[in-house]
Amino acid sequence: MFHSHGTRRSNAAARSSASGGLEGGGVGSPAASSASEGSSFRPSASTFWLLLHGLCCLISLFLGFRFSRLIFVLLFSNTIYTYTTTTTTTITSTRTETLTVSFPLTHTPPIETAVKPNNSALELSDKMSNQGSSHSQVVVGRHGIRIRPWPHPDPTEVMRAHRIIERVQQEQRKWYGVKSPRPLIVITPTYARTFQALHLTGLIHCLRNVPYPVTWIVVEAGGVTNETASLLARSRVQFLHIPFHEKMPVEWAERHLTENRMRLLGLRVIRERNMDGIVLFADDSNVHSLDLFDEIQKVQWMGSVSVGILAHSGGPDRTLLTEDEKLNPPIPVQGPACNSSGHLIGWHTFNSIPYSEKSATFVGESATVLPGKMEWSGFVFNARMIWKEAEDGRPEWVKDLDKIGENGEEIESPLALVNDASFVEPLGDCGKKVMLWWMRVEARADSKFPPGWIIDPPLEIVVPAKRTPWQESDDLAGSKLEQDDRRFTRPKSRSSSKRKNTLPGQDN
Amino acid sequence: MGVKSWILPLLLLQILFGKFGIAELEQHTERISGSAGDVLEDDPVGRLKVFVYELPLKYNKKIVGRDPRCLNHMFAAEIFMHRFLLTSAVRTLNPEEADWFYTPVYTTCDLTPNGLPLPFKSPRVMRSAIQFISTNWPYWNRTEGADHFFLVPHDFGACFHYQEEKAIQRGILPLLKKATLVQTFGQENHVCLKEGSIIIPPYAPPQKMQAHMITPDTPRSIFVYFRGLFYDVGNDPEGGYYARGARASLWENFKNNPLFDISTEHPTTYYEDMQRAVFCLCPLGWAPWSPRLVEGVVFGCIPVIIADDIVLPFADAIPWEEIGVFVAEKDVPNLDTILTNIPIDVILRKQRLLANPSMKQAMLFPQPAQPGDAFHQILNGLARKLPHDKSIYLKPGERTLNWTAGPKGDLKPW
Question: Where are the transmembrane segments (chain A) (predicted)?
Answer without folding.
Answer: 48-67
